[in-house]
Input
Amino acid sequence: MMAGCLSLGQAIPCIVLAVTALFSSCSVQAPAGTQVNAGDGPSATNKDDAATPAFDAQRAFAHLEAQVAFGPRNPGSDGHAACLTYLRNELQAVTDSVELQPFTHQSTAVFPGKSFRMTNVIGVIEAASGSAARQVVLLAHWDTRPVADRDPDPANRRKPIPGANDGASGVAVLLELARVLKASRPGTTVIILLVDGEDFGARDDLSEWFLGSKYFAKHMGGYRPSRGILLDMIGDKDLAVESDSFSIQADAALMERLWSIAGALGYRSHFPKTPWPSTSVYDDHLPLIDAGVPTVDLIDFDYPYWHTMADTVDQCSADSLKVVGDTVLQAIRDGI
Output
């Protein structure tokens, strides 16, 4: 599936392959300092809450709104250029260092013969003093699809999408996570990776999808993440994060840990219990997995406005951003 993601069954991009993946039935303890609640709310409490910054859902949602306000962010558009400046400035304020990783893509299937300038934006939050120099990468794509090819109205299918959930939601969570993590440094160096060109490809051609993550995977330089978490399409109002067979194969222990943390935080309905049916999601985690970085994709692909003009702010929820933000934040603080 493509969020851009591809999943086997909807033709290539979005090929959804129904498989059944069973997690091992090991018992995972709740995160330290939390209270388990079987309901669906942020019920966990931390002994150091007074001193430990929390994920602010409203800040995250403001980042989502700001991105959408630029208009479509497909490569080559005015919105794309404006959003790049915004992301660079925001990351500079909440990380220790920021790098722009520009690259050029010569289109073959989508816009044959045209060349597009794309840019990955990378921010680094150094680990707490005295901690091991292990690195993890948190990533999301910031571009939006250049064509609303799944819109029910044929007249819209050559228009670029607004990309509120498919694009802006994952980025919004990462910008807020960066703020919190810099204010309370974890024991792991965190790489915030905002990739470009994920949603660029043609429906029947895999060659022009995941361009930014492919580029990063081939040009990591001094970045050496041991694990990764991808956030994609996690802002919809009816959030239910799906399991992905590629993620399970790459790092089943991390998948189990994330689902356990979500359950301990009171978010069980948003991270359904194992065992569960799984789809095979083609997304930005695959180039990293291929490069030797086990990466898990957190995604809710059951989104009726995917790749349509209706992927707008009103279809998204700050509560959903908080569910994912809290879960990933606890995982980082636990030392994934």
Observations:
- The beta strands are 6-7, 18-21, 97-106, 115-125, 135-141, 189-195, 225-232, 276-279, 281-282, 295-299.
